[in-house]
Structures are given as structure tokens and as C-alpha cells.
Amino acid sequence: MTAQPSTANPPGQTGPLPWARARAAAYAAGVEAAAPPVEVPLADADGATLANPLLTRTDLPAFPTSSVDGYAVRGDGPWRVVGRVLAGTMPKPLTEDGTCVEIATGAAVPEGTAAIVRTEDADRTQDGRVSGVPRGMPEWREPGEEARLGEQLLPAGTPVNPAVIGLAASCGYDTLAVRAAPTTAVLVFGDELLTAGLPGDGRVRDSLGPSVPAWLRRLGAAAGPVLGPVEDTLDAHVEALNRALTGGAELICTTGGTMSGPVDHLHPALAQLGARYLVNTVEVRPGFPMLLASVPRPGGGTALVAGLPGNPQSAIVALVSLVAPAVAGMSGRPMPPLPNIRLTGPVGGRGGYTHLVLVDADGVAVSHAASSMLRGMAGAVGFAVIPPNGQASAGDEVPLVPLPLLAGERP
């Protein structure tokens, strides 16, 4: 007998949800589940997301600063040297024509400066004066040249990286209001799974327990513990989910058990925990029996549970289809965009289902891409999206669901 998906559908869902609607529902669920912003020191903000727009707290630069080492001069030369200006000090004005001060890169330009003569363009006369010809362009940065006081530099929802931290520091921030990366846990279901050694004797290696946390980190989540393989009993499934919930996970990814076969206990376990389904099965191939549910946490609040199918490629389809939008919503980031890719060969459809097809950077559908295989994914950049009842020809541009790879990881 063929296993069937659970009938515990969300309100209004009577069958598999169209793929685009499932993505949107997952993003909305993430927004609803997002934790409140927190204020953190700059050094602790890396990997979080701006909760508010980043506005300048001063003009950048705040005062005229020299772009070069040289001499700030007033009037015609040769100029008598009347001082030196180093970075970090405020100089006295130049009030007398024919005078100059030696100036360092980054130092404040004295009021009254007409030009800066670069060190390499300057000479000293026998009486110690400076001669030289200023270049055509001013050799200093004007206040507000980079940004004006109150100007928006970055919108809310921007991921915080070292460049953002440096920019925030440059305009006077000591802390940032951010949304932290959501905490996660991964539950691996299946008595047939091995966690070490060679597959054999009817058992296979678990490929998702080691890899899903790495995918989650690349999506912007904080990867937490991996529990399992969890025994194929209802009690064990409930206990594992409770461990993840009491451990503080805001997003729990499970692998396997998303149908209603004799050892598929995820749906009954969710029912015992009072889950509210948000998505239950999706019109997509591969990855059809995926789900997303909201589960009460002991002590208050809820967590999201993403049920990933047990077949490895199907699990990653569920990850990019439901988990990626949910993480973006929980993090306060925009819905993950779908860039286009030009195909260099024909790609067939899957009837009334959206077909997600692994392709490489050249737009070629990769081989070894069955739902149970991971070899093709290792050389792919993402999934080309073929709409229901559609197909694509060589030269067509279609949406791409990128694999969440870090810079430099593209195959």
C-alpha cells in the first residue's frame, strides 16, 4: 500500500499547496515568529540583521580631512612653516598669507587653507620655506562627502557583516539594534540510518544530519544540536521534539517521516504537541511531502517545525522552498529573491507540479539528480524553476532557486 500524506491541513488547504504559495506562507510564518530586536555591541552584531535602517549620526566625514601627506598652504608661496597637523588633533586656523602647516593624511584641514601641496610635489628653500605647485583638484575630503547627517545608509533587513560593522562604527554607533539569527535544531528520523562507517546490511549513511546544519548556517540561521537517529516510535519522536523545544530552538528541522506510512510518526507527534499546520505537502517535484508547522513551546511562545522528506535531494528542495523563506522572515530580511538563469538545454516539466531541476552555472541540468542522490547537487548552483504544466527549451530564461552557498563556494 502506498503511503499518503497526512490530511491535517492548514485552514483553507484541501490538497498540496502550490509551490509559490508555500514559499509565501513560509515567509509569513517566519515574520510572525520573529523574535523582538535586541541591542548588541558592534563586535557582537556580525551575522545578525539590521532591525532598523542605519542612519548617519554625523556628516561623513565630520570635518574636512586631508587626503594626502603634504602642506596646507594659504596665499602664494614660498610658504613659511608655522606648525604641524596630525590626525586626531584640531588645528588652529591659518590666518596669514604665505604660511603653511605640515599635514598628515586623515588630519583635520585648518580653516583658511587654500590648497594642499603634496609632499612629493614640495621642496624646501634654503631658508626653510616650502615651495611647490598644488594639483588641480582639492586634496581633502569635504564634510558630508560620503554621507550627510541623518542620511539612510542601509535599510532594515540588511545582513550585518564586517563592512556594515565598520560603516556603523565610522558614523558613531557603539551598538546596533538587530534581529539575531534564529536558533535551530535538527532531528534525524530513521532506524535504518548509520552515523559512521560504510553502509551495508540494509542500513544507509545519514547524509542529512551532517549537512543540514551547514545549509542552515548559510541561510543565516544559528545551527544548533543534531538529535538522532531518533527511534521509529511515536514516543521517541515526541520526546525528541520536546528536547529541541525545551532546548530553546526557534526552528526545528526534521528529516524523514513526513508521509503517513507505518514508521512515519511526525504527524502524530505534531498532533500530540498541539501543532498548527502552516503548510502540509506542496505541489513540487521532488520534495512533495514537506511541511511547516507552529508548535507551542513549554513555558510559552511557539517554534516552527519544518518537516523535510527523507530522500536527500527532496530534503534540500524542502529546505530552499520552506526553510529559507522562514529563516528570512524570522531574521527580518526580505523574501529570498529568485534570479533568472538561461538554460542551455531543454528541461521537461512534471505535470501539474512545479519542477525544481538542479542546474550548473552554465544552465545545464546536472546528471545524477534523482531525489535520493546528492552527487548532482555537489556540482550545481541551484534549482531551475519549471512551472506546473510547463517545460523549457534551450535559451529560455527561468527563475533560479540558488543553493545557499558562501562566496567562493560556487562549483
TrEMBL record:
Coiled coil: none annotated. The keyword Transferase applies. Keywords: Magnesium, Metal-binding, Molybdenum, Molybdenum cofactor biosynthesis, Transferase. It comes from the Bacteria. Residues 185-329 form the MoaB/Mog domain. It is an enzyme of class 2 (transferase). It holds the Pfam family MoeA_N. Its cofactor is Mg(2+). Its EC number is 2.10.1.1. Belongs to the MoeA family. This is Molybdopterin molybdenumtransferase. The lineage of its organism: Bacteria, Bacillati, Actinomycetota, Actinomycetes, Micromonosporales.
